[in-house]
Automatic annotation (TrEMBL):
Domain of life per record: Bacteria
UniProt keyword list: ATP-binding, Nucleotide-binding
Pfam family, one: ABC_tran
UniProt xrefs under PROSITE patterns: ABC_TRANSPORTER_2
Gene Ontology molecular function: ATP binding; ATP hydrolysis activity
ABC transporter domain: residues covered: 6-235
Name of the protein this chain belongs to: ABC-2 type transport system ATP-binding protein
CDD domains assigned to the protein according to its UniProt record, in alphabetical order: ABC_DR_subfamily_A
Gene3D superfamilies: P-loop containing nucleotide triphosphate hydrolases
Length: 246
């Protein structure tokens, strides 16, 4: 039977009178690559912050890795990885110092950190960059490194908020190879993106419009339902009626 690692029921976040995330209900399964799409301001980051235990919902319920988002936020944080375009590594530490630092935060032993950093650097082909400052690396490398660090402690789920923003298609493709490898290892991937080619790489996608999930299915089923051949067009058909966009 498929294991459910995220389960929400009418999850809602209000800011005063404004409903940023409006009653979303969905499930994500173990090892799935789940795309969380929506136009700017649709409510994706707000929803993701609640799932990561960083923001308390106004109403509804959610369990992440089996833990409750109201009462068990510390357990949630220990079982997830998180990466956003805005939060990255320490630019003034070297590659290997960053790996050591985050390994320590995640509670890995020194021996484990050493083995993991060697295999991580080999996987990324970054052995000769180990002693370089992260700040001196190209953005695409930083993002790949940042992802690898976010899964260093082998979390059950990794949340990625627009992880590939601003990099070229080749680098984005390489980044997705890392995502596939992590998913193969049983890590569930929850990813927001504005790139529709990336949406195609997901097992299932939800599309949010003005705080609500308007569609949720495989890319293939969504294209059939909206009678089109591209995710771009599915997205456009759903999002064109959106009242919010920034
Ligand atoms: N702390 C807050 N107080 C008031 N309004 C907020 C707050 N955080 C977010 N919002 C509003 O909630 C709405 C949803 O924002 P959110 O950042 O979740 O959207 P998003 O789908 O992640 O958009 P983007 O793709 O631009 O990151 C926006 O209209 C935003 O202005």
């Amino acid at each position: 039977m498929t294991e459910t690692v995220i389960k929400t029921d009418k999850l809602t976040k209000r800011f005063g009178d404004f409903i940023a995330t409006n009653g979303i209900t969905f499930e994500v399964h173990k090892g799935e690559i789940f795309g969380f799409l929506g136009a700017n301001g649709a409510g994706k980051t707000t929803a993701m912050r609640m799932l990561c235990g960083l923001s308390k919902p106004s109403s509804g319920s959610a369990q992440v890795a089996g833990f409750d988002v109201y009462k068990q936020t510390e357990q949630i944080k220990r079982n997830i990885g998180y990466m956003s375009q805005k939060f990255s590594l320490y630019e003034d530490l070297t590659v290997v110092e960053n790996i050591r630092f985050f390994g320590g935060i995640y509670g890995l032993s020194n021996a484990d950190i050493k083995t993991k950093s060697e295999s991580l650097l080999a996987q990324l082909g970054m052995e000769s960059e180990a002693k370089k400052l992260v700040g001196s690396l190209p953005l695409g490398w930083k993002q790949k490194l940042s992802f690898s660090v976010a899964v260093l402690h082998r979390p059950k789920i990794v949340f990625l908020d627009e992880p590939t923003g601003g990099v070229d298609p080749v680098t984005r493709r390489q980044f997705w190879n890392l995502i596939y490898a992590a998913a193969q290892d049983g890590i569930t991937i929850f990813v927001t993106t504005h790139y529709m080619d990336e949406a195609e790489y997901c097992n299932r996608i939800s599309i949010m419009v003005d705080g609500k999930i308007e569609a949720l299915d495989t890319p293939r089923a969504l294209k059939q339902r909206y009678n089109t051949t591209t995710m771009d067009d599915v997205f456009y058909q759903l999002a064109r009626g959106a009242k919010r966009s920034e």
